[in-house]
Amino acid sequence: TRRGCPRARRVFGSAAMKLGIWTLALVCLGAGTFVACGSDDADGGSATGGVGGVGGVGGAGGASGSGGLAKPEPAGIAFKALAPMPSGEQILFNDWDLQPNAVSSMKPDGSSETKIFEAHRVWSMGVSKDAAKIAFACGDPLQKEHYGVEIGDAVQHTWVYDAATQSAAVLSWGNINDECHDWNSAADSMVVCRRRDFTATGENKTYRVGRLATSGAFEWLGLGEDSTPTTMELHPQLGSDETTLFYTLINVTGGKQERAIVKKTLPGGAPTSLRASASGGVLSPDGARLLFADTAQKSALYSMKLDGSDVIKVASRNGTSTVWSPDGKKIAYLWGETQGCSHVEVVLADGSQADAPVRVRQCGSSFVTELAWVTRP
Q1: What is the pLDDT of residue 373?
Q2: What does the pLDDT average to over 13-35?
């Protein structure tokens, strides 16, 4: 999510994007319904579909994830600790394209790159507020053998990297695809967007938001287990008191996506629209503002107060994987100047650099899909 056309990237791969398929990729949205995704759309067309075969979900210490398969082990995703996470303020990023894939750290000015760990095709990543844990989703190298699903990286389990022990353990697994990981303040749970029950051809129950505890317990927070393929829920963010949920609600009609940022009171409240033609909301560190992409303005980046007022344009770019600095004064994002190549750029949150971003990292040969800006003691 939040990276140009992520589902097309996983289905077709970077080699296909180099041939220009990325902006024209057709992604299944249920029986006989397709939508094209483009580079000016913060998320592009997300793959959803009809109901697939039932697959169980395991948690920490729970039963096996699917069809009697054993609990995944770090060796199964080629996990390897490389270096301790540095102390101080830093931006973490992944590399989804090169093998072996890695999660790395750099200083906010782009210097002092350090590879923290390697794992198989890390896609989504969320770092706890104290930077002690990294939740990440990555592909299963034996996906076809385990789940009978041929579309690459359809199945993605949630793993947690412990910075103190430099170890990783699976948290939730099975016939699922977890993304959008965002920790709560206590680091004992996170919100995610989840697809599930993939068929051999990749059809699945569409994105829904939920809460995943470090115990492995899972609960739906949005529409729940409703699998209507013409709606999707992405980018969940919990307010500081965890009683308000913000997320992107996507409705697909006539082959087109209509996006809005909505909010709902937990538990059980009905979602209400906060901002139409908007996507990818990210709460500021103090919880007072929401950063978003305005899809009516070619996904330029704006922030607003939680009541929708005081809208500020912070970047003219159609940036993705947007993150706030820990002090809330700056914003970093990915910007794809060319297909499959995302630079890391930084702007001031007050809007004064909207047309003059500072590039802190050239994309080079890496394929970055996720950022996190944290301070580690």
Answers
A1: 98
A2: 29
Residue 340, φ and ψ in degrees, nearest 5: 75, 15
Question: How many Cα atoms are found within 13 Å in the side-chain-facing hemisphere of 107?
Answer: 4
Q: Measure the CA–CA gap between 284 and 154, rounded to whole angstroms.
A: 31
**Which ranges of the chain would DSSP assign to H, the alpha helix?**
6-18, 143-147
Distances (CA, A) of 273 to 54, 243, 270, 280, 298: 32, 17, 10, 14, 20
Whether the ω angle into residue 267 lies within 30 degrees of 0, i.e. cis, is yes
pLDDT tens, 183-215? Answer: 999 999 999 999 999 999 989 999 999 999 999
- Per-residue pLDDT tens for 284-324? 999 999 999 999 999 999 999 999 999 999 999 999 999 99
Phi and psi torsions of 295, nearest 5°: -75, -10
| pTM of the predicted protein model | 0.86
DSSP letter at 16 equals H
**CA atoms of 298 and 295, how far apart (whole Å):** 5
Q: Which of 145, 204, 169 is nearest to 27 (CA)?
A: 204
The residue behind tokens 């580690």 is 376
- Residue of 333, 331, 372, 292 lying closest to 128 (CA atoms): 372
- Pick from 10, 71, 70, 69: nearest CA to 37: 10
Q: Residue 352: how many CB atoms within 10 A of its CB?
A: 11
Question: 82-98 burial, b for 16+ CB within 10 Å, e for fewer?
Answer: eeebbeeebbbbbbbbe
Rounded CA gap, 263 and 274, in Å? 6
- Return d(Cα 369, Cα 20) in angstroms, integer: 18
Q: How many residues does the chain have?
A: 377
Pairing mode of beta strands 57-59, 34-36: unpaired
How many of the other CB atoms lie within 10 Å of CB of 32? 6
136 versus 13: the higher-pLDDT residue is 136
| Residue 113 neighbours by CB under 8 Å, 6+ apart | 104, 105, 106
Q: Residue written as tokens 């949205």?
A: 29
